[in-house]
Amino acid sequence: MAAAGTRSLRALLEERVLALAARFRAENAPLTPDRMAAGIGFCWRRAPLAGRDGLLDPSRRTILVAAEQSPRRQRFTLAHEVMHHLIEQDGDILSDLHEAYAGPALEQALERLCNLGAAEMLLPGAEVARALAAAGPNPRLVWELADRFGVSEPAAAVALARALGPASLAAAFGGRPLVCYYAFGAGSPPRGAALPPDHPLAGVRDTGLPFRGPLPLPGGARAVSAWARLRRGRVYLLAVEVEAAGA
C-alpha cells in the first residue's frame, strides 16, 4: 500500500475507534467502573498484576485492574480494556488494523488506539476542543481537565495530544534527574528517559518559571513550539509541532 493510502487508513481507524468510544459512552453513561464493565457483559475486580495495568479474562468475563493504581488510573485502565474488547469484536476495524500494520507495529497501534478510545470515552473530544479554544495549548489543561472529568492525567494528555493534531506532544516530567513520567503523540520520549541537567525543562523545575519556545526532546526529536509549566514538582509540556529526529 502506498504511504499516503496507509496514512489515510490509519486516520480512518482513529475515526472509527473514536466513534466506537463515543457510542459506548452514550449507551452506558454515567461511566462508573461497574457500568463500563457491564457494558460489554463483564465484571471487574482489582488484583495484583505484576507490572501490568490491566488484563481481560474472557473465559471468566472479568476485567482485572492493578490493585496498586489510583482510582482515577484504574478507571482509565478499565476503559482501555473495554476498548480492547470493543475493537476485537469489530470485524471492520480489525481488518483495517491488520491492513495498516504488521509485526510489532500492530501491537503498538492497537495499544495506541485503545488509549485513544479510552480517553474519548471518559473525556469527550468536544470538551477538550472547547478548553483549547479558551486557553490555547496551555499545559495547565492536563491537570485541569483531569480534575474536571475525574480522569487520570495521562488520560487528559492523550486527549489533548489528539485534539492538537498528529504533530503534537503532551508529556510530564519529574524527579532528579528529570525523567519522562509519560508522553503521548509525536516524538514521544520513552517512560524514564532522562534529561540533562542543563535542559530547559530542568530549568522550569528548578526556577518555577514557565518556558515557551523550541525544545530538544530525548531521542533526537525537536519541539518547534513548546509550552511547559511546573506544578507540584512536575513539569507539564504541550508541544503543537514536533519534528522527528534528523528532520
Q: What descriptive keywords fit this protein?
A:
globular; Beta-Lactamase; 2 domains; 5-stranded antiparallel beta sheet; 8 strands; 247 residues; Arc Repressor Mutant, subunit A; 3-stranded mixed beta sheet; alpha+beta; 49% helix
Got a strand count? 8
**Gyration radius from CA atoms, angstroms:** 18 Å
Helices and strands, in order, run as HHEEEHHHHHHEEHEEE
CA distance, first residue to last residue: 24 Å
Q: What is the helical fraction, as a range of percent?
A: 40-55%
Mean pLDDT: 92
CATH topology of the largest domain: Arc Repressor Mutant, subunit A
Strand content: 15-25%
Q: Structural class of the secondary structure composition?
A: alpha+beta
Regarding CATH, which class of the largest domain?
Mainly Alpha
Q: What is the total number of structural domains?
A: 2
As laid out across the biggest beta sheet, the strand order is 5-4-8-7-6
